[in-house]
Design brief:
In chain A, helix 2 runs antiparallel to helix 3, helix 7 crosses helix 9 and helix 14 crosses helix 15. In chain A, the strands form 4 sheets. A 9-stranded mixed beta sheet of chain A has the order 2-6-7-10-1-11-12-13-14. By secondary structure, chain A is of the alpha+beta class. Chain A has 15 helices and 16 strands. Chain B is of the alpha/beta class. In chain B, about 40% of the residues lie in helices and about 10% in strands. Chain B is built from 16 helices and 11 strands. In chain B, helix 2 runs antiparallel to helix 3. The chains are: A alpha+beta, B alpha/beta. Chains A and B meet through loops of A and helix 9 of B.
């Protein structure tokens, strides 16, 4: 039996403001336990929250990026529940009037650049909770309050996705936008993006099925696994004649399974009510507009432009626009106008990416500049060095202040195009390979590749392959 | 003596700050057993501060109006390194590592914090009988309650155990005890005094305010504590003047609104008569009266208990035994720890309000209770706004009766709540109101009258209350102090 799955996502992203949302503590990951906290973010009696305006600005930017309506007046509410990592026993969030509503995101669904529109229900601001730690030397649990009050935005999608691939594309686009507008570090391993996933299944043409919510999904690949697992689980229940009950389940990525957390009957009554310690958030129209104008070119638009004005294939454009640093580097290279755009893309996505991945670095960690990279590519295009020599040059310039010219000079990597110097090499190689000459004459002209290779080896990689080819052909004909 | 006259003596070097503090400490020594105003007496810190003031005097430095004046601070206002219990077992050992903004301002003004005043647990009560530690008694007659919740703050001023004090007022908690103990008490405009460091009961209604023996003293203390505080988002961004110096003690041409709903059958005839007679005395000084109506007053008490309990249920949720304060001894798991801690740590009245507040916010009941109460709040504020188009201030009894006997209402919460009937609408509308003593009832206890003004009209209230103070030739002190 065929089933269709429907997916809705709630993405929580930690914002990279300098300070926390309701106090002046530093907003930083990885500090010593309980060092970035104060009486306010630990909810000590009598303390009061005051809103960090930057958080509102960041959220509004995201709202614009996701084509939302920005509410000029919104409010904050208390979500009440008991847990040791929540020191006030309520989380300040937004309930009925969020900052941003009714947006959408166009997500690229194929290699041709076709998109699908996913509805964005709302974006609201809220505070993160602390973390429970478990230490073997201590029987109970310990609490680290550093994360308390770290600003979050929650982005809620419409149930518009129908495959795990669509969900993944949506998540990746959200992440990329967060990076482009520079409001989140997007470090998955630090938990700066987390998502809750709603999944339901139904027979095609029938109304949407009952949904289940999965919590604790911390990676995009985990999201794909979690969705596939949950859809399969629901289909199995239905196929066995059972029915789906609305419930919350916890995803265990290590086990590749989810587990019942609570059923609808046990769901929390959060007793939301307006936060009396904070004023209504009022943003004037001028500021809303200014924040819109401050947005950079977003990844989808950039990708399209790369394909249209640079003539790059989708594969290249997609990878180059994946994060704003890579795209900016690429565009600086193009602006140098001293080599071919496609060659820049090839080198960036090829050897440069390989070196970065091997060492787990990003471009900013290296000494590579657009100038150095394009100079190196130009040397290849001009025939001054071979592609092979280019790789050697790259290895050198990426981690030093040396220019490509200096490396070519020092290592003697310049190609020899002088026919006089190369003729002797060709002659000695042909003398040593009479069979290849016979093959060539017999019509197996592809042996020329082998002969060029031999000549290259003898010239220590410096021979200009094009010149060598001409010489070989000439000498065979003449010989 | 008033703070103003003591400050004068200090300036003239007729006495030292240490002498003033010692005399107040002696009075505490003499009367505290009978009255029980304080949870904590800060003898050592108080004397140290007094010595510092004396050094400043010796050095010829400028003095603030509160320098060297012993002040009691309600025990729900955080004081750095000094126990702040909210008179609850839940916070029996809580020592804040920070000062409330008002406390910082007192310290900056060189006031001498003499002790932390007893109160109804978490400011929930009208009699000061729900404190975990002790029951404060009325200095006029220890068989009677001092009123609440700022009972200790009113009693210590009335009994001479402090010259001034700070209380907090969520539904009448400054004005009611001020009236029962025969002192002056101001509930300031919501947003004029920072709430930072005030352990919250109902955030949208709470306001810290001064109690004292004269209008001038209260104005002086208000002047020091009011003002914008960046730590409190609800504190109003505006300039405040020097109130005390500007008191003109005149009511010439002042239109006094008399709302009929506050002089109905629920108010004891003797109280009604005393307040109306006081109005007559103000009319003789040039005021006019206007009959007005605040028709929604009947619903105010219900709206108040819904809104305040709802906020309290959330505000008090943080007392869970995890980080500070009381934690139950034997528990089997987290939920058990929460339940036992909160069952054992809170008193009955607090639990009653947490349960009420939790209920009215619950899904399915929110619209019927909390939402309607908030609508009623708007209506009440609207009625006040309309009333103030006809009059300048509104005058009412502070409470329908004088202080009641200890234990008389502890088993009847509704009767206890009724003591606040005249005061809660002021908090609901965010207005300022002052309670001043206006008569002595046949039982020998003081009667208070309340003057209510539009937002930020504290100066007008001081002017009118000051005029009345002049008519009375000052306000009397409790007989136990006289003796």
């Amino acid at each position: 039996m065929n089933y269709e799955m429907t997916i809705g996502l709630e993405v929580h992203a930690e914002l990279n403001t300098a300070t926390k949302i309701y106090c002046s503590c530093k907003n930083a990951f990885g500090a010593e336990v309980n060092s970035n906290c104060c009486p306010i973010c630990t909810g000590m009696p009598g303390t009061l929250p005051t809103l960090n305006e930057k958080v509102v600005e960041y959220a509004v930017k995201m709202g614009h990026a996701l084509n939302c309506k920005i509410n000029p007046v919104s409010k904050q509410d208390r979500k009440n529940y008991f847990y040791p990592d929540l020191p006030k026993a309520y989380q300040i969030s937004q309930f009925d009037i969020p900052l941003c509503e009714n947006g959408y995101l166009d997500v690229m669904v194929d290699e041709k650049g076709n998109t699908k529109r996913i509805g964005v229900t709302r974006i609201h601001i809220e505070e993160d909770a602390g973390k429970l730690l478990h230490d073997e030397s201590f029987a109970g649990s310990l609490v680290d309050f550093n994360r308390c009050g770290v600003p979050l935005i929650e982005i809620v999608s419409e149930p518009d996705m129908h495959s795990s691939a669509e969900a993944k594309a949506y998540l990746e686009t959200i992440k990329s936008i967060l990076q482009y507008i520079d409001i989140s570090d997007c470090k998955m391993q630090e938990g700066s993006i987390r998502c809750d996933i709603n999944v339901s299944v139904c027979r095609p043409g029938e109304p949407m099925g009952t949904r289940c919510e999965m919590k604790n999904v911390n990676t995009f690949s985990g999201a794909v696994r979690a969705i596939e697992y949950e859809a399969k689980r629901q289909i199995e229940v239905l196929e066995a004649g059972g029915e789906i009950h609305q419930e919350t389940r916890r995803w265990d990525d290590a086990k590749g399974q989810n587990f019942l957390l609570r059923s609808k009957e046990d769901s929390h009554d959060y007793r939301y009510f307006p936060e009396p310690d904070l004023l209504t958030i009022v943003i004037d129209e001028e500021k809303i507009q200014r924040l819109k104008e401050e947005l950079p070119e977003l990844p989808n638009k950039k990708l399209k432009r790369y394909m249209e004005s640079y003539g790059l294939p989708h594969f290249d454009a997609n990878l180059l626009t994946e994060n704003p640093d890579k795209a900016a580097f690429f565009e600086s290279c193009v602006e140098k106008e001293n080599c071919k755009t496609k060659n820049i893309s090839n080198w960036l996505l090829g050897d440069v990416s390989r070196i970065l991945n091997e060492k787990n670095l990003v471009l900013a960690d290296t000494s590579l500049t657009p100038e150095k990279l394009t100079d190196m590519i130009a040397l290849i295009e001009k025939g001054t060095i071979s592609v092979t020599a280019g790789k050697t040059v790259l290895e050198q310039i990426i981690f030093s202040d040396k220019t490509p010219e200096q490396v070519v000079e020092e290592k003697g990597l310049a190609q020899i195009s002088d026919t006089g110097a190369l003729s002797a090499i060709v002659k000695s190689i042909l003398d040593a390979n009479p069979k290849s000459i016979a093959d060539y004459k017999g019509g197996k002209t592809n042996v020329i590749g082998f002969l060029i290779g031999q000549c290259m080896r003898q010239s220590k990689g410096q021979g200009n392959p094009a010149v060598l080819k001409d010489l070989i052909e000439k000498q065979i004909k003449e010989g | 003596m008033t703070a103003a006259s003591l400050s004068e003596k200090l300036r003239k070097k007729e006495c030292s700050a240490v002498e003033i503090t010692r005399s107040v400490l002696e009075q505490i020594e003499k009367t505290e057993d009978k009255i029980g105003s304080f949870v904590t007496v800060c003898e050592e810190q108080a004397l140290k501060k007094a010595e510092e003031v004396d050094r400043k005097i010796a050095a010829g430095e400028a003095l603030s109006s509160l320098a060297g004046i012993p002040i009691g601070v309600k025990d729900n206002i955080c004081t750095k390194d000094v126990l702040t219990t909210c008179s609850s077992k839940m916070l029996y050992n809580f020592v804040p590592p920070y000062d409330a903004t008002v406390v910082s301002r007192l310290k900056q003004a060189d006031a001498v914090i003499i002790g932390k005043c007893n109160m109804d647990e978490f400011a929930m009560g009208s009699s000061c009988e729900t404190s975990y530690f002790k029951k404060t008694k009325n200095p006029w007659d220890p068989a009677y309650v001092p009123g609440g919740s700022s009972g200790g703050s009113a009693a210590c001023v009335s009994a001479g155990e402090a010259v001034l004090s700070l209380g907090s007022d969520t539904g009448g908690s400054i004005r009611l005890p001020a009236s029962y103990c025969g002192v002056v008490g101001l509930k300031p405009t919501y947003g004029s005094v920072s709430r930072y460091g005030l352990v919250a009961f109902a955030s949208s209604l709470d306001q810290i305010g001064p109690l004292g023996r004269s209008v001038e003293d209260v104005a002086n203390l208000y002047e020091v504590i009011c003002g914008r505080d960046p730590m409190d988002a609800t504190s109003a961004a505006r300039e405040y003047g020097a109130f005390a110096q500007k008191i003109n003690r005149s009511v010439k041409g002042l239109r006094i609104g008399i709302p009929k709903e506050y002089f109905g059958d629920g108010v004891e005839p003797e109280i009604k008569a005393a307040v109306l007679e006081s109005v007559d005395r103000l009319v003789k000084e040039g005021a006019q009266t206007v009959s007005i109506s605040l028709p929604s007053t009947d619903y105010a008490l219900s709206a108040y208990y819904i809104i305040s309990s709802a906020e309290a249920s959330s505000n008090l949720a943080r007392f869970d035994g995890v980080k500070y304060g009381y934690r139950a001894k034997d528990f089997t798991n987290l939920i058990d720890m929460y339940e036992k801690t909160r069952s054992e740590g809170f008193g009955d009245e607090v639990k009653r309000r947490i349960m009420l507040g939790t209920f009215v916010l619950s899904s399915g009941f929110y619209d019927a209770y909390y939402k309607r109460a908030k609508q009623m709040q708007q209506k009440i504020a609207q009625e006040y706004a309309e009333a103030f188009s006809q009059c300048d201030i509104i005058l009412t009894p502070t409470s329908p009766s004088t202080a009641f006997r200890m234990g008389e209402r502890t088993d009847d919460p509704l009767k206890m709540y009724a003591a606040d009937i005249c005061t809660v609408t002021v908090n609901i509308a965010g207005l300022p109101a002052i309670s001043v003593p206006c008569a002595t009832a046949s039982n020998g206890l003081p009667v208070g009258m309340q003057m209510i003004g539009p937002k930020f009209s504290e100066q007008m209230l001081f002017d009118a209350a000051g005029c009345f103070e002049n008519i009375c030739g000052g306000f009397g002190v409790a007989p136990s102090v006289k003796a």
